[in-house]
Description:
The protein is α+β, with helices and mostly antiparallel strands.
Amino acid sequence: MRVNQAAGDDGFTLVELVMAVAILGVVMVALTGVVLQHLKVTAATEARLNESSDQQLVSAYWQGDVSSLGVRTPVDATDPLSPRQSVWTGGTGPGSVPPDCGSGLVGDLVIGFAWNVYPVGAADPLDAWDASLEAAVYVTEQVGGQYLLSRVRCHGASTERHVVARHLRAAPTVACADAAGSPVGCAAATPPRTLAITLDVRDADGTGTGGYTATLTAQRRQA
């Protein structure tokens, strides 16, 4: 007697193939959407991080420089340490920046500060009044469609330059006020009590972020 063997069920039918291709297409569309959304969110997040980093770095230096500013010159017994101009704004060159901080300055001056540093532990008490002059200058440069803000630290004839903001839409602006909060000229003979810098921040390479404007305010310690 002849026995017919059952046909094997390995492989797949045409219907199964069509269904698999259809399901694969749906999955690929969904995965592509997820990847594109991830890239979009990542770019926006990176832009926001760049923008916030600029604000935080400028704030750290700004607070320290403003609180330190104050140049004093011995005049007479009634006012042995009278204050003098300690803030410079506008223009470029030695005539508009703190002394000894204008040589080789690159960029447009936003603001400059100067202060005295008094020696500690001087052998002769009279040398304790022989103060050195320190300064810091903020300058801006336009690179492409954005502005860079740099801080130049001056130690006599030597300088150290660091970029503190890279994603600005415009050059920063500064405003000064006296102890009562009334607006005053920043470069007055008597240093202002409060100084504020306004930053217009936006990463031009980022997407999904409109940028923002931040005003950083600080007060000087000296009366």
